[in-house]
Design goal:
binds ligand C2E; five-stranded antiparallel sheet; binds magnesium ion; Beta-Lactamase; alpha/beta; eight-stranded mixed beta barrel
Length: about 575
Amino acid sequence: MAFRERGDDDLSQDEVFRRYRTLIDHLPLVVYLDELDSISSNIFTSRQIEPILGFSVEEWATDSELFSRLLHPEDRERVLAAHVHTHETHEPLSLEYRLIARDGRVVWLRDEGVVVFDEHQSPVYLQGYLLDITREREAEQQLRQLALYDPLTGLANRAFFHERLRHAIKLRHDEGHATGLLYLDLDDFKGINDRWGHDLGDEVLHEIGRRIERSMRPGDTAARLGGDEFAIVLTEPVTPDDAVGVAERLLAEIGKPLDSGSGPLYATASIGIAFGSDDETLLREADIAMYRAKGHPEVGYAFFDSQLDRVALERSQRIVELREGIARGEFRLDYQAVVDLEHNRIQGYEALVRWEHPTAGELPPGEFIPLAEETGLIVGLGEWVLTEACTEAVRLCQLHGRPIHMSVNVSARQLHHSDFLRHVTRALDSSALMPSLLTLELTESTLLSSNERVARTLERIKALGVVLALDDFGTGYASLSYLRQFPIDVVKIDRSFTANADSKDGDLVLLKGIIDLGHALELNLVAEGIETPEQHTIVRKLGCQQAQGFYFGRPTHPAQRDLDCIPRV
Ligand code: C2E
Ligand code: MG
Ligand code: MG
């Protein structure tokens, strides 16, 4: 009966089965024949079904209700409805569903069936195959878990959270409501990590994740945004009082003692609350409010307040612009000549970065370098500066027809980055600049924060032939120990010592002291901030080898200047 449409009319059902048994028994799937009755009673099922579900083919053949009994409760209605549809319309059946195996396992099956007709075009039965897709489904589930959830806490990850937040905002917005967001940050989590170790730190985060989940209202979504930062989007319409209720519950749960293995450990958190209808703005405002909450540990939470948080909001806006500006290439380098005082000619240039801000106009480094340092964006920006400056140096060497040095400012964050040495070698390689023509300017505060690894990096950079300079000498901690501790070749004397050298005797004495010391240590000295012919004369007479300042030229693009036009004494 099974294969009658192939023209084997004279074959008995047994003969058909015998012929095709081998094939059917070796297919990596289950072949079946079902009645077109209301419960799809089974006529035949191939043996592969046994290891999959733990029921013998005999059980399938004798127990006409087995199939519908094994259907997963969540799938039962859908699957039976699909069968009814196929029975009525004779359209193919194509489904994925779960059956519960004899030992309780959940088995995912793909079921593809077609209605077979006899020679009179009457439907006779349903013929199809079942494929065990449990492994694929589990792998998919795992991938989904990895892509959407934070592995440590099981909460939504940042990407998934953004999706949920946008969805919640849209729902609330359509109903004319704002969405509430809580931004939660553990207080001094670094202290827990430092004191108890990272493994315990991870356990704390895991437990905090559970407590957050426990404190939420049904329907709200919590996420771990990274580190010790969490966010909760309040999906149901809420008043500020409701939000406070959630915040207080969270703080109370988190504040309960944690088990450290050797006595109780207490964690506290700060929560920022914001309402709005734009996901980025909401997150930013709740984050800002959270920082204000840190200042009021007795309360533990704070609402975003556009008046109180104006400065913080502007700063956070600038960070966004900075990130975009770097991606869009809104930065430019100006170059200020460094003059060789003995030969009265340009010895090199210092590269100084400027931001061509789309609305605020040109911004000096003082307005964005500190922010870039705090956020770590300086690493990418600094690498661009290095490459650009080295490339320009090669062009300037050709323009001047002699070796021209290039000085590049380096911040602490860059120096500490594990890729810094690579950034330097890459810039040198891509530009083909001789390493001895590159000077890296470091400040005293940069060196103050250095450690053994940084010291090794500096040694290796030095070994390439690159020159190291101590910038703004005298403004920082002015510890002479740096000069011996690090392989410094050049000291740039800060403008504060040269600015008044031509007017006050006291400053002159200090300047002379620094220069004499530099000579004793066999360092190259650069006087910064020379603005007048008098200052020029003084630093030259005191024995500075080089100088830099508005008197010789403002930072600009060298193509715009007359290359060797330096004021003479
Ligand atoms: P700096 O390295 O000490 O650079 C010298 C600064 O003094 C420059 O300011 C320059 O325009 C200014 N200057 C030069 N001659 C005179 C003068 O005769 N009188 C006066 N009043 N000022 C003079 P700028 O360009 O605003 O840069 C400020 C600082 O920003 C730099 O100080 C440097 O620390 C930092 N910076 C600049 N570019 C970069 C960069 O690419 N990376 C990093 N990390 N920092 C940079
Ligand atoms: Mg400098
Ligand atoms: Mg300086």
